[in-house]
Amino acid sequence: MKTVRTSPHIHGPLRTDKAMLFVIVALLPSALWGVFAFGPRALLVLAVSVAASVLTEYLLGLVSKEFTLKDLSAAVTGLLVGMNMPPAVPLYIPIIASAFAIAVVKWTFGGLGCNWMNPALAGRVFVFFSFTSQMSAFLLPRWMRLDAVSSATPLSAMKTAVTGGAQGLSQDLLAGTIPNTDLALAVADRLGISPYAVDAFLGNVGGCIGEVSALLLLAGGIFLLATKIITWRIPVVYIGSFALLSWVFGGIPYGQGLFGGEVLVPVFSGGLMLGAFFMATDWVTTPTTPKGEIIFALGCGFFTFLIRYFGSLPEGVSLAIILMNIVTPTIDRFVKVKPFGYVKKPRKKEAKA
Amino acid sequence: MKLATFRRGGVHPADRKQLSKEKRIERMPLPEELIVSMSEHLGAPAVLTKKKGDTVTKGEVIGTASGYISADVHSPVDGVVKEIRKVRAQSGAVADAAVIAVDDVQSDPWGEEHDWKGMSGEDLLDLVRSMGIVGMGGATFPTAVKLTIPMGKSVDALIINGVECEPYLTSDYRLMIEHPDEVLEGVMVAAAIVNPKRIIIGIEANKMDAVSLLSSKALSSGYPITVMPLKMKYPQGDEKQLIKATIGREVPSGKLPLDTGAVVCNLGTCFALYEAAVYHKPLVERVITVSGESIAEPKNILAPIGTKFSDLIAYCGGEKDDAVSVVAGGPMMGFAISDEDTPMVKGSGGLLVLPGLVDDFSAPCVLCGKCVQHCPMGLQPNRMFRNIKYGNYQAAIDLGLMDCKECGCCAYTCPSHLPLVQGFKLGKKLGRKKK
Prior knowledge:
The complex is a heterodimer.
Chain A: H1 16-38, H2 40-64, H3 73-83, H4 92-106, H5 119-130, H6 132-135, E1 138-139, E2 150-151, H7 154-163, H8 170-174, H9 182-191, H10 195-202, H11 214-226, H12 233-249, H13 264-268, H14 272-279, H15 290-310, H16 316-334
Antiparallel strand pairs in A: 1-2
Chain B: E1 25-27, E2 33-37, E3 47-48, E4 55-56, E5 61-64, E6 73-74, E7 79-88, E8 94-102, H1 121-130, H2 143-147, E9 157-161, H3 171-178, H4 180-194, E10 198-204, H5 208-221, E11 225-230, H6 239-247, E12 262-266, H7 267-279, E13 285-291, E14 299-304, H8 309-315, E15 325-328, E16 335-337, E17 350-354, H9 370-374, H10 381-389, H11 393-398, H12 409-413, H13 420-434
């Protein structure tokens, strides 16, 4: 007697748990860079986040009698929460963030596949608004610390400067506040761009553990694209629309007027790369149709721009993605794919005489 | 050169044709008994005209068509009807079947060549009907019905389906390589009936040797046939996708290919048309690929209709120890069978003995949208499946469930291994019942 099952009798290489594993692999370079830059304390934060997330999932599994640790989604959530923490954060904060992410955002709505908001992002935003000062204390990478240990991120420093009445490009606004590496100065000089863009791209800036190196996040994103876990639409459209808006309108608060805004510093700084490749591409909380994905990504780009340039709060990327997560079901409901063989009814031709 | 293909969706499974690609078609020695089902084709089953104990001769009609969409069934051998019983065909349909004990000495009634070129389209159509020919790509739609062009319609393109997009299967490929002249003449028989403006043979790019062989043969015989290589993509062998790939038209939902001016005919069917026109030989045998990782020796076999799968497997050296499932047809759309004595029917192009190729991983739907991206019909399998799961069949039908052809692209890509196709089969059945 042979096994009988419905066709198809072969299956493609994609599998949810393997995809989660690949996401972890893709995140690791950036996470390790954070550990390298900020020291063993960062590793501890990452470990605590993952452990808290996995433990919460396990304990809730005891309640709902569903043991879902094997799909690795809790581990991914934990790792993302950890990567979104400043390196010196008190350890109870990532624990609260992970527990909130898993217990409130994911489990109460029915677990994997049923949450309507990215758990890791929700966790980050929850603790950001609960512990704002601890969540805003950043460190410079070890090799850049001269006297001051703590430092602002380029984005927040620029915002502070503009609020104080200053205007100009990043190299004018940040000079004296945030140091540059010699390498970045040399490269920037050669290319004629801001040295802060180079340092942000390479990861020589202060920030959350996992979001400082745009380069390594990009590498991880390309790995996910190559393994077909994500498609190009969300990251490309998200970053592209954000960059375009920054160029066209981003100069206004900084005194460069229309079509003069800086592009590279805002694109490489903050959580944009992490958000665009790893958060906005989350399977569960993004639209399922290609057209819907593009609308989603455009919305993310628009709101990130709006919050970063004209909002009074940081967290542009997190809030923009969460906002678009909320409208995802609506997008899926109204943006339809045109099925094969359906055409708009042609206007009736007048009968030939 | 950029090859043509259909635009939307589709998947690229490994073709695994190397297992049987180089194996010449061989005629299997006749088995001791055949089980000839009356439900060899799509539509109404034929009516069995023989009783237990009757003798049958090779090529004799033993079942007569019982409706417009139906086909005659002929005896593939000289023999005696041992038994009449209900038999479950590979598709699951249960119908009367004649169990025929095969005589030791067999006649050869089809030696004489006939000239078909002087025959009119109607006469050829009658001949095709009386020879019991059905589409041999798997759907087994009666060919005579398909080639009947209603008044007022005309055929722009006759498209011959040599795509064979299902992995493992090589029966059409071997026919093209070993019998190119016969296949092309069969194409011309179909052309003589439907009178098309152009004739296109679509073949996927993993069979470029067949493309060049057929196009040079067509050229040297002076046939007005275009052989079109197509980019590999499953399910290109589906009628609608093939029409889109070759002539760029979309068959409207619920309509027939003829509404776009196209008639699609399978390549194996063309070989049967050749034999019917030249030798007046009914469709009583076909080439079947017996393959898979768990068969001792993959082969392409010419076997009489009604041969039991167990006989084919035995002829190929039997199953290996790791065999888990036996599949009639290709791996994407074929039917897993539990009873290896199930007989071959006119649509059996393949028989696969497979080790467990799909693991039993399962997870909830994660809304990744892969099924939407890969659905060649532009449907939203995730939403249809959710509706069916909760019993809301009408909502699934409103989302286009009836346009689903169960090609399996969604289930193939689903990272959570949801049984999407199973859900759609069930949903269609229950949805129809409710109406």
